[in-house]
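Training component of the fellowship. As part of building independent skills, the fellow (R.M.) carried out the full modelling exercise for a liganded target. The chosen ligand was C2G. The inputs are recorded below so that the supervisory panel can assess the work.
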Amino acid sequence: LKIVITYGTFDLLHVGHVRLLKRAKSLGDVLIVGLSTDEFNAVKHKSSFLPYEQRKEILESIRYVDKVIPENNWDQKRSDVRKYKVDIFTIGDDWLGEFDFLKEYCEVIYLSRTEDISTSLLKGMMKG
Ligand code: C2G
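Fellow's submitted model of the complex:
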């Protein structure tokens, strides 16, 4: 079984996230998502509308997602890859090159982002 992992905040799930998850799953047989905790969001200078538990529940309802684990810090990826016997790490190409250090542990694939949609754009639209 080919194991794929990706990480993110996944707040206010939109088609950008869903298309990423769909493509990530298609790279293998099992998709694990490292979901940024509320505390780690603060480290990423990012706040989310929805708390971790709700973002986790929503992700777990997505057909492409097999397991959700907490993402607590920048440094857990190496140990996650070993712990879950990950074959492929994947993430959107807004992170192009940032995680190449994982190449000694697994395949690293950057997927194209979906243009013209983002949580901040949705927030702006809701403000009207
Ligand atoms: N994404 C996308 N298209 C968009 C928006 C997001 O493909 N329009 C992808 C991102 O590239 C990422 C995933 O959806 O792969 C989750 O996006 P975010 O929640 O914004 O993730 P981010 O805050 O970049 O967290 O350790 C890695 C970080 O936790 C990544």
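The panel noted the following from the submitted structure. Helices lie at 15-26, 38-43, 52-60, 77-83, 119-127. The CA atoms of residues 9 and 54 lie 11 Å apart.
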